[in-house]
Amino acid sequence: MTSHLIVTDEDATRVITLRRPEKKNAITQDMYRAMSDAIDTAQNNPEIRCLIITGGSGVFTAGNDVEDFLKDGTSNADTPRASNAIKFLYSLAHNVKPVIAAVDGIAIGIGTTMLFHCDYVLASKTATFSTPFIHLGLVPEGASSLLMPRTMGHQRAFATLVMGRTVGADDARVAGFVNTVVAPGHTEAEARKVAREICALPAEAVAISRKLLKLPPEDLTRRIDQESHLFGERMRSKEAIAAFQAFFARKKA
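Above: the chain sequence. Below: its structure as tokens.
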């Protein structure tokens, strides 16, 4: 388990906490692997009834650690999309336990797209959601091109995924992918309340009902694979190379 991820089990709930504050919880390949393991090992554990994903107070995640992602994601021309990120997305797609997300602060890239695999999302009033793939010359990932239009409608999804517009917490609630907006610093506590409410329900009925609500996992993984292939092609494109060069130049400035 990476030191940048904390996994705790309490009251039938597994809490997965991103803990890399110095990098705004940017996700490394080690963190992806640890999150995937935390989800996978809960699947056949009857003691775990619910999952919470949180970044703690003040920030959810800045998305992929760009340097780490580029290093691992382009190391093999045949598999340009880093395998640990895909493994995490597969774990979300195949997960059968209710997932609650507690978003306080920024949720960038996969920080936003992972929410569409969750069952209940709480956001602080200061939370913001953005998917700036296009600005980096890339394309959507995480089956977001399938799930976001289904949740938000085509026009809102276009503005978010293609135009890269940032969505605030209240607008996210109106768009349908945030359930509740709470005060900053209270998302995790409120998420635990929701988890207790879910855990008090009949477990088998919850599992069956959730499965009826969700798209089949094979539909999700098929879209994840399709996006991943295109994502890898785009990473080698002139547009993406220029965008990443500009990104690192701004960081050095």
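The chain is about 45% helix and 15% strand.
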